[in-house]
Amino acid sequence: MPNQQQHLLTLIALVAALGLFVCLWLGALVLWLSQRAKRANMVQQRLKAIETNGVATEGKTLRLWHEGKEATTIVPLSVTKSGVGEWAEDLRVRAGWTTPLPAALLGLFGVLLAVGIAAYLFSGTFLMAIGGPVATLIVFWIYLQQRISKRTSHFERSLIDALELCARSLRAGHPLLGSFQLISEEIPAPVGDLFGRVCQQQDLGLAMEESLRAIANETPSDDLKLFATSVVIQMRSGGNLADMMMRLANVIRERNRLQRRIRVLTSQTQFSKRVLLALPFLVFILLNLMNPTYMQPLYDTSAGQAIMVASASGLVLGWMMMNWLSKLTP
Fold it and tell me: What is the pLDDT of residues 135-147, one digit of tens each?
């Protein structure tokens, strides 16, 4: 009887400690989300909707004075995906996957189901059957973010080459549309495909300004939006397009150099994050392979299951905090 009471008290203490840990985690998460929402509201107040020709347009107005005349254009703001389906489709496009979204989601669900079944057969507990797919989903999310980051870096490098090629073509006497056609032939996807679409839309009779705005709205790249805005301003007010594109290419190159410098400065934090996240998983797998009997109480007892849930929660919280510490915000 005393042993049962002691076991009950131990279980209550573990549950209370786990509840306190979860409450602290949720409190820190709510505080972080509130600060993020506050910064987002400040940005939205600075970049609020403006009135242009009696029509409300979401964007930021740029004005240029040339020979006593005002040339204005609007830099469209990034459109936030409202639905989950649109958000997932945007991630698929940014990652460069050609697989349709339903097929990709079905394949991901199949992988998660297979991992859950394998984890249950390996451990014999429903806790591992849930934790296995969750860990797989986290790994897939990290891989997806890295793929998007690499594709964005490749897009920015290709855009610099495209701008320099366009500037040299304009200096050689080619028209702007001919320069875009040359980019579509010489620069690989995805930059070449975008300029090829502009040429196709010009053949169909669409205005250059509308074509540039269309590709700028469909692409999450701020550099491409800046390029489209600069070309529209130069076409309205006049000026040397070749010099403008060379200056824009230099600006993008310097900004990329600064971003690479930032990644170097934060590389130690990123490496520490990966090591600290990988060590618990490696130790857990090795102990299960070397001495399954030693790890069996984690699966069979409620206290062991609570410890595994608290450990997984701590790893996720640590991953979020390390990402927050290594992220530079203006």
Answer: 788 888 888 888 8
Count of domains for the chain: 1
Range of the domain at 225: 78-250
Q: Residue 59's beta-bridge partner residues?
A: 76
- Residue 91 makes CB contacts below 8 A (sequence gap 6+) with 144, 148
Largest distance between two CA atoms of the chain: 96
128: which 2 tokens? 């591992």
Query: Is 166 contained in some domain?
Result: yes
Task: Classify residue 217: in a domain, yes or no.
Answer: yes
* Within-domain flag for 161: yes
For residues 184 and 324, which has the higher predicted lDDT (pLDDT)?
A: 184
| pTM for the whole structure | 0.60
298: in domain: no
What mean pLDDT value characterizes the chain?
76
Residue type, 11: L
Query: Phi, psi (5° rounding) for residue 22?
Result: -65, -40
Helix (H, G, I), strand (E, B) or coil at 65: strand
Q: Which CB contacts under 8 angstroms, 24+ apart, belong to 196-202?
A: 202/177
